Amino acid sequence: MNATTYPAPSQPSVHAVADVLRGAHTAIRYRSWTQTEPAAGRGPVHALTAIGIGVAGWLYDPRTILSPGDERLYEAAITHLATHLGLDQPDDPDQFTAWHDAPGRTEADVLNALQATARVLEGYHPDRVFTPTARDVTSVHHGVALICYGEDASYLAIGHIPAALMVQASQACNLHLTGEPLADGTRTPAALEREVRHEWTVHWRDIRGGDWFDFDPGRRTPGAVPVTVLPGD
């Protein structure tokens, strides 16, 4: 009798891992960061929880048992991070946790590691940086070029514009895309205006022609452009 053989589990693609790392980056940016135990809910998050959010979505709870495929994706994200950081044993998640929880570690350190690792996996190169135009965005409303991004439907406008105009344009875009208003009983237009912030981003294309943008808080990267952001709910 011949022994039955089974194919080895497929490994996550580097692009899937990059998507997870960007999801983790977004989760920390919006919810803030902590070195304490990974937590559920909507408060500050440990990077391990943020990576879980990147894998399973915004309702991820660290007590959740991931599917085998999601578990491989979760572990691969940590391994790629540890490799980028030059840790001795990148396959040992405890080494990444020790780096993350070390005294003096900062939120900026973690965000930079997540973004830089994703960039490497996606094939970032300075020659691929571009200045976005109306044809590179989701749509244009009230003269504002908008990009809708993330699972929480955040909006990014090219240029630094007044908060009231950002909310007006984002409302129109959301109605166009979903048929639903952004403002409701708790998120009034005035409340949305208080959430608007002015930042800088770097836009670039990967080797497959996909468009990406990275937040650049110090506007240090050549090609960085001013943007206005309305975070999603």
Mean pLDDT score: 87
Strand content: 15-25%
The ordered H/E elements are: HHHHHEEEEHHEEE
- Number of strand elements: 7
What does the overall shape look like?
Answer: globular
Query: Can you tell me the residue ranges where pLDDT is under 50 for at least 5 consecutive residues?
Result: none
Task: Report Rg.
Answer: 19 Å
Counting copies of identical and different chains, the oligomeric state is single chain
Helix and strand composition category: alpha+beta
Major sheet attributes: 7 strands, antiparallel
Helix tally? Answer: 7
Distance between the termini: 59 Å
Question: Could you give the topology of this structure?
Answer:
Layout (H helix, E strand, L loop, with lengths): L13 H18 L15 H10 L11 H18 L7 H8 L6 H16 L6 E2 L8 E3 L2 E6 L4 E5 L4 H16 L10 H7 L1 E9 L5 E5 L9 E6 L3
Antiparallel strand pairs: 1-5, 2-3, 3-4, 4-7, 5-6, 5-7
Helix pairs in contact: 1-2, 1-3, 1-5, 2-3, 3-5, 6-7
